[in-house]
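Dear all,

This email documents one entry for the complex benchmark we are building for the journal club exercise. For each entry we list the sequence lines for every component of the assembly. Then comes the predicted three-dimensional structure of the complex as a token string, followed by one or two observations. Please use this as the template for your own entries, and keep the labels exactly as they appear.
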Amino acid sequence: MWNLVDKSIVVFRKDFQLEFRTRYALNAIAMFALTTLAVISFSIGPIQLDTNILAPLLWVILFFSAMSGLSHIFVREEEQQTADTLRLVLPPNAIWLGKWLFNVILLFGLEIIIVPVYFAMMNTQVENLSIFFPSLILGSLGLASVSTIIAAIISIASSRGALFAVLAFPIALPILFSAINSTRLSMEGAPFMDSWSDLQVLLSFTIIIITTSLLVFEFVWKR
Amino acid sequence: MVVEAKGLTKHFNRRTIFSDISFHLEDGESLVITGPNGSGKSTLVKIISGLLTPTSGTIEFYNDGKLLPAEVKYHQLGLVSPYLQLYKDLTAWENLTFFARTRDSKVDESRLKMLLKRVGLGGREHDELKTYSSGMIQRIKYVAALYHQPRILILDEPTANLDEKGAKIVYEIIKEQTSRHILIIATNEPDEVKFGMKHVELG
């Protein structure tokens, strides 16, 4: 078990070094998120939006930002022809876990910037942080998990960009529904127990995706 | 250490690349795989190293008579090949320490430095690989493959992109490997074919 964790950290560390050097995924996600935020902010002007619109809007931005950059984690290995090298030196599960960890950290890192900017631009605030933070953390974990396994599947296809969003969207739907609903409740100041079922769905779905990914990744990865 | 291949066959769609390849190698033995372009030399190398699965047949590694499980096999294997690329945005040192850590969390820096010096790249280890020539990258691949003292060394086109000096270093590595462990070479170079005690001709 610790051997697997150690090796996952080796993969994460390598991907972190590569991203630090090239900033490809970071730039793609940040540019998409900030451009979308600016466009939305300018188009609605001083109008105060309802929480029924604000919550989905936040998750639409987060979902498409994730789609714009997280697939790079596996696509880069195929494009630079380093996938075979990785196949040779590491067990499949360590590769998936390392890359999942990288996507999680990248998404969390960007949310630290995107989410406060979103609330500032939309001139709104969260009324119940005890719902908001679990929703954001679990929703992001789910998005990163879906993105990582779909990225591995599409990395060997020719039209990767289009395929990624098309395949990820239906799988990420339960995450988006629950995350949007619990985020809306947090903006409305609802009591914690009102969001309990959504948080349960988010947690369960994320666990299912991670478990399924670890089970199927070897077949996706090996040729 | 023993490498045992039985009836290896590979089809891509309906095309048969090769069929019924068998060989047996023990420590101190070497195998040369030859054949015209497209005959499946690299495919066979990929199957031996575990990067591809054969359509039929088996390739098994034994240590002291015990079958090595797939996850341990890599620790005994070193592979240098044109399709095995390194990370060009990282430095040579970052690449090599990454590969070293995939086997053991503690990196033997003195061994890495010794190997870099041996392949003639001492002092260039902190340059990004994208600034290296193809011959220099080939030399770094040798450092990565030899770091853990593999008992099975597989070389696909061993002197590709190398100058005369680089080829000489590779021939020394080949002689050292065959004196103690197992060597498998895929090549068509007459100078390299002579290193094989056993021979598989494809195509």
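Observations: Residues 2-221 of chain A form one domain. The radius of gyration of chain A is 18 Å.
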